[in-house]
Design brief:
The structure holds two protein chains of two kinds.
Chain A lengths: L1 H16 L10 E6 L1 H4 L5 H12 L2 E6 L2 H8 L7 E6 L3 H6 L3 E2 L20 E13 L10 H6 L6 E4 L5 H14 L3 H8 L3 E5 L2 H9 L5 E5 L2 H9 L4 E4 L5 E11 L5 H11 L2 H4 L2 H5 L2 E2 L9 H5 L6 E2 L3 H19 L2
Parallel strand pairs in A: 1-2, 1-3, 6-7, 6-8, 10-12
Antiparallel strand pairs in A: 3-10, 4-10, 5-8, 5-9, 5-10, 5-11
Chain B lengths: L1 H34 L8 H34 L5 H8 L1 H4 L2 H12 L4 H8 L10 H26 L2 H9 L4 H29 L3 H6 L8 H10 L4 H25 L21 H28 L8 H33 L4 H12 L2 H12 L5 H42 L4 H30 L2 H5 L7 H10 L3 H28 L1
Classes of the chains: A alpha/beta, B mainly alpha.
Chain lengths: 332, 514
């Protein structure tokens, strides 16, 4: 009886899980991507239809924790492309020796920093920022210093640098602004930190629910509220000390069994066709698209004057000491 | 001949399942260590995490167990309209997906929550949920239902004849407590404490969201960090070993304290004890009302927020919901089969190692388990094809310890009370299963199956490691949150909660009616 039940259920599961067996004879380009990218609310579906429109192939997203996964799989990986790596972890990815050069000209990107990496190709970018709601916080801090010296009842939520990429970016942001004074800065910031969440989503949810006055997010976050919700109250606090640069990167896998397709995909990333899908699907800025071709909502966003960024060697070297400083500040 | 084969098989089933579990959990750990080419040492922050983990788990478990006693006693000795429904409802938090529960707790106890609004209105200082107190509060919220349920089962396992005898002997409530209730609690409480302690040992998201910062770091978070931040599989394996060591130590401790109660057989009158009159009616009512308020308010708060948006959820959410339900049902079936086999073997008095193996999954880090399986299986199967089956299997395994806690006492009682009779009638194999075991164990089996289904429904853990293009409902919830759709996410949370609860209810109901 149990066995019958299990086999029936297994059949049902296969049926529920089976994807349509289309494009069977077409070559498959396997793209490892972060969870949100391939969901129907991320940029994935547009990228898939956009590429399949001319590649005569079947682009398949495989989502999950991409970097740990590909490091474990090593050279046996099925991935042809890795999509959505972050600037601050490329040192580890590069050291694996799994990736091949992208072969793109990166001289005239629309990034606020120089890009000379020949393996990891940015397809979008943004900067860290604290977001607030101007109906709840009428006098937001106008600088990082003002934030540090604000009364302790100003509550912010941040992400854990050990679990989240934006949390790690905050460590580097503070390091970039305060350098050796970072421990003192954290000591001032710690009492204002309502809580530290595992990921960006939990933090952001707490902010929109009104639990916290400010949330660690990106300068581009208000664009979502403006474009999708007609909500003009969410704003990024722009600090003259500068904001930390974050980009999402794509790379092709050296041992790919579809080298032409993979290269074709890399060649497509910086074209306007691809770049135009980024702002309103990924809620971030395109890596190579003149500003007058951005959607109006992105062009209207206030932009920081100064951008802070560490090279991957610097970021890798700073990671552990900065984390220790952070841990000490919060363990008092 | 066939009967002998069957008997042989039923005799070996328990040890086989237990050995399989042990091999799986220790094997995956070994695989992770092997991939890392050895274990790594732990730093001072890791040891802090170990200390915090043990401390919060011990405190959460003690509070859950102690607070559950008056609630369970009140539920055991009072009869009122809607009691059955309330008992089921009070179980809800335990099977709530963590993310939903945290939303609910924040809605009630958060800075903008109802409690703090009332406190502010009365000019009193705020209650701050963020910090270790929030972690404990959340753990009690999650585990009070489990504790109440297990203790209530202890009460119900005292044959009604004993209570009637006590009544005819003119026992005062104090005497009933001394001769019946306290021995039962002595037998049941260590197991309850242990179960909650073990659940809290592997706590991850709760501590991270409500803990207020890194001083509330748990071992499971340190494992996650080792995977995600340091890519240090050796450290993950070491921490996994530490968790298992803590598990075994706690089990030995709880075993030493627990003394089995011997009440003998009864006639299964389900009406239970008649509660004493007088002021105790009031305190019992108060205990039930406070528990209901504490456990159900956060759930109501989430529901009110998300319910109106459910009809407008995109179709992909419903597809994911269907997929999750099917996976949860298979998980529950697997869990029940394993659970019954183990419980019967334990009841036959086979060594403590079977019970230990059955409890191991509670402490095995899902991260280590998932990664280990990934390493072991990826050479043999396509990882995409593996994602869903592995998630189903791991969820079934993860639910085992809870099912066992409910099933072992019942299986032991069955063995004590009917074992010799059945043996003397030479009732074996399928006949014994059908006519004795299943009917007698229907209730705990229904409970165990419901738990397994609901926990599997709400689990996010393993599937994110095994990349898949077939998202489950919890993953969809995270995807919604990850793309700014917080209002849709709150509707999705209500849907997830409703399905988890419905699954539990169906199994539990089925068990009671059988």
């Amino acid at each position: 009886m149990t066995k019958t039940l299990i086999s029936v259920a297994l059949l049902a599961a296969t049926a529920a899980g089976a994807s349509p067996a289309a494009a069977q004879d077409k070559p498959v380009l396997t793209v490892y991507a972060g969870d949100y990218i391939a969901s129907e609310w991320g940029p994935g579906p547009k990228i898939e239809t956009g590429f399949e429109a001319f590649c005569d192939c079947d682009l398949q997203f495989v989502t999950g924790d991409i970097l740990p996964r590909i490091l474990m799989e090593g050279e046996n990986t099925d991935a042809d492309i890795v999509f959505g790596l972050n600037t601050d972890v490329t040192a580890r990815a590069r050291a694996s020796g799994l990736f091949a050069p992208h072969g793109q000209d990166t001289t005239d990107m629309t990034l606020p920093v120089e890009w000379s990496d020949d393996v990891f190709l940015p397809y979008n970018w943004g900067e860290t920022a604290f977001i607030y709601d101007d109906t709840r916080l009428e006098n937001p801090p106008a600088s990082f210093d003002e934030l540090l010296n604000a009364p302790d009842d100003l509550k912010i939520v941040i992400q854990d640098p050990r679990a989240s990429i934006s949390g790690l970016a905050l460590l580097l942001w503070v390091k970039g602004v305060y350098g050796d004074q970072a421990p003192e800065a954290w000591e001032k910031l710690a009492p204002k930190v309502l809580t530290v969440t595992k990921g960006w989503s939990e933090s952001y949810g707490m902010f929109t629910d009104g639990e916290a006055d400010m949330v660690l997010s990106y300068t581009t976050s208000p664009a979502y509220h403006i474009a999708a919700e007609d909500d003009l109250t969410k704003k990024a606090a722009i600090f003259p000390e500068g904001h930390y640069f974050m980009a999402e990167l794509a790379a092709q896998v050296k041992g790919t069994d579809q080298p032409e397709l993979a290269q074709q995909f890399m060649d497509w990333i910086l074209t306007p066709d691809f770049q135009k899908t980024i702002p309103l699907a990924n809620w971030s800025l395109p890596a190579k698209l003149p500003e007058d071709e951005w959607p109006q909502v992105m062009r209207n966003l206030p932009r920081p004057e100064k951008t802070l960024f560490y090279t991957e060697e610097e970021a890798e070297a700073l990671r552990q000491p900065a984390l220790d400083e952070w841990l000490r500040a919060f363990s008092r | 001949m066939a009967a002998r084969v069957l008997a042989l098989r039923s005799g070996l089933g328990g040890p086989a399942v237990a050995a399989g579990l042990g091999a799986l959990i220790l094997g995956t750990l070994a695989a992770v260590a092997w991939q890392a080419q050895g274990l790594s040492g732990l730093g001072p922050w890791d040891w802090r995490a170990v200390r915090f983990t043990v401390w919060q788990a011990a405190l959460s478990a003690a509070l859950s167990a102690v607070l559950a006693i008056p609630v369970a006693r009140a539920l055991a000795r009072r009869r009122f309209a809607g009691r059955g429904a309330l008992v089921t409802l009070l179980g809800a938090p335990f099977i709530l997906p963590v993310i939903v529960a945290i939303m609910g707790l924040i809605a009630v106890f958060g800075r903008n929550g109802a409690i703090n609004e009332a406190l502010r209105g009365a000019g009193l200082p705020e209650f701050i949920i963020y910090g270790w107190q929030g972690v404990i509060l959340a753990h009690v919220f999650f585990n009070l239902p489990l504790s109440v349920r297990l203790i209530l089962q202890g009460w119900q396992a005292i044959p009604a004849e004993r209570f009637r005898l006590a009544e005819s002997l003119g026992f005062a409530p104090r005497d009933v407590a001394r001769h019946l209730e306290r021995p039962m609690l002595r037998a049941v409480l260590p197991g309850v404490w242990l179960a909650v302690f073990l659940v809290c040992l592997t706590s991850f998201a709760v501590a991270l969201t409500l803990g207020g910062g890194p001083s509330a770091t748990t071992v499971e978070l340190a494992i996650y960090q080792a995977f995600r931040f340091d890519f240090d599989l050796g450290k993950a394996a070491t921490l996994g070993l530490v968790q298992i060591g803590l598990c075994l130590a706690a089990m030995v401790l709880a075993r030493r304290i627990s003394i089995p109660a011997a009440f003998g057989t009864g006639l299964d009158q389900t009406q239970g004890p008649r509660g004493p009159r007088g002021w105790r009616v009031g305190t019992d009512a108060l205990a039930i009302m406070l528990a209901a308020l504490f456990l159900l308010w956060p759930i109501m708060a989430v529901t009110v927020q998300g319910l109106p948006r459910i009809p407008s959820l995109p179709p992909e959410v419903w597809t994911a919901a269907l997929r999750s339900v099917v996976m949860a049902l298979i998980s529950a079936g697997l869990a029940l089969a394993m659970c019954l086999t183990l419980a019967l073997a334990i009841a036959r008095g086979r060594a403590a190692w079977i019970e230990a193996a059955g409890m191991l999954p509670i402490i095995a880090s899902p991260l280590v388990l998932g990664t280990g399986l990934f390493i072991l299986l990826r050479g043999w199967f396509s990882t995409d094809a593996l994602a869903l089956p592995v998630t189903v299997a791991i969820n079934a395994i993860m639910a085992l310890p809870f099912g066992l806690r409910a099933l072992i006492p019942a299986a032991q009682a069955l063995r004590e009370d009917y074992g010799r009779l059945a043996d003397s009638l030479d009732m074996r194999g399928l006949a014994r299963l059908r006519h004795l075991t299943l009917p007698r164990l229907a209730r705990p089996l229904g409970f165990a199956g419901g738990l397994a289904a609901a926990l599997a429904m709400g689990d996010l853990g393993v599937i994110t490691l095994f990349a898949t293009d077939q998202p489950t409902l919890p993953l969809k919830l995270y995807q919604l949150m990850g793309s700014y759709r917080m209002t849709d996410a709150s509707a999705c949370a209500v849907l997830l909660m409703a399905i988890s609860f419905a699954l539990f209810w169906l199994f539990d109901r089925g068990g009671r009616l059988a």
